[in-house]
Amino acid sequence: MRILILGGTVFLGRAVARQALAAGHEVLCAARGESGAPVGGARFVRVDRDEPDGLSAVEGEFDAVVDVARHPHHVRHAVTALAGRAGHYTLVSTGSVYADVATPHQTAATAPLLPPDHDADPAADPESYGRAKVACERLAAGGFGAGRTLLLRAGLIVGPEDPTGRFDYWVRRYERGGEVLAPGGPDESVQLVDVRDLADWILTAAGRGLAGPFDGVGAPMTRAEFHAGLAAGTGTAPPLTWVTQEFLLERGVVPWAGPRSLPLWLPLPRYAGFMSRDAGPSLAAGLRIRPLAETVRDTRNAFRDATHIDESLGLGIDEETALLREWHAR
Length: 330
What we know:
Blueprint: E1 2-6, H1 11-22, E2 26-31, E3 43-46, E4 64-67, H2 72-82, E5 89-94, H3 129-144, E6 149-154, E7 157-158, H4 166-176, E8 180-183, E9 189-190, E10 193-194, H5 195-208, E11 212-216, E12 221-222, H6 223-234, E13 240-243, H7 245-250, E14 254-256, E15 261-263, H8 280-284, H9 292-301, H10 317-329
Parallel strand pairs: 1-2, 1-4, 2-3, 4-5, 5-6, 6-11, 7-10, 8-13, 14-15
Antiparallel strand pairs: 9-12
Helix pairs in contact: 1-5, 2-3, 4-6, 6-9
């Protein structure tokens, strides 16, 4: 296939380009080039998608287009420039499009969405991200045709080159050893997807002409299974101490990401549906998920200093120690 990646210089875009090239496809990456460089072997053209004619340098026809846009006007411009030249279009959307994050086991085909915001600017207002992506989905399906457009609502993407550090936090934490503070309970859900598995599925889906909305995430696992995968992938088995969400929230521990956070943890029942989506339709449509231990191992091998804890991405060492001390003293 001749594949155009609108992006292709960061994380998922790079993974799609790398695996497409390995499979023998021709790859063109179109981006500003400010966030990184494309993988070796991919052609690159510099574009500015803020401009209505910003894709004018992209020439020719493509069997597949992969777009990671979050700004509605970027998709609008892509439709204008490419709708007649793309056989299949994949919009990498997000699970943040869903209006109901509390109900477990929802599917992409029936779950209610947020209202679209065609004027949203997620860079200036992060709270508009989900609404902006809904607008992107509607523009894509309307412009490229619903029967030729895959709306891939990605969940938590992890693996080598992840720029967010959320999954990295846990891999590094296991490498450092010692008593580990595990948030919530062992039966709570965690749901994620290796970036390479998602990239493989994007290419397979394009070749098959898969269309419609799908969740780009693996089946839910329990937190106990998540920690077992961390142990298997790092070859370590530090003692776990399960600490309730009430204790953590009372002491200002932040869910999900950021300073003084425990990444990948979300309070229940408010977010009970966020990491427990029904991945059955996606798995039936060709998504293949590698063992978590493999993702952990490869993520670890990509680190220069596997034991370093970046306190801007999670609990600092002293913070975790203090919380554990207080928990045991209760």
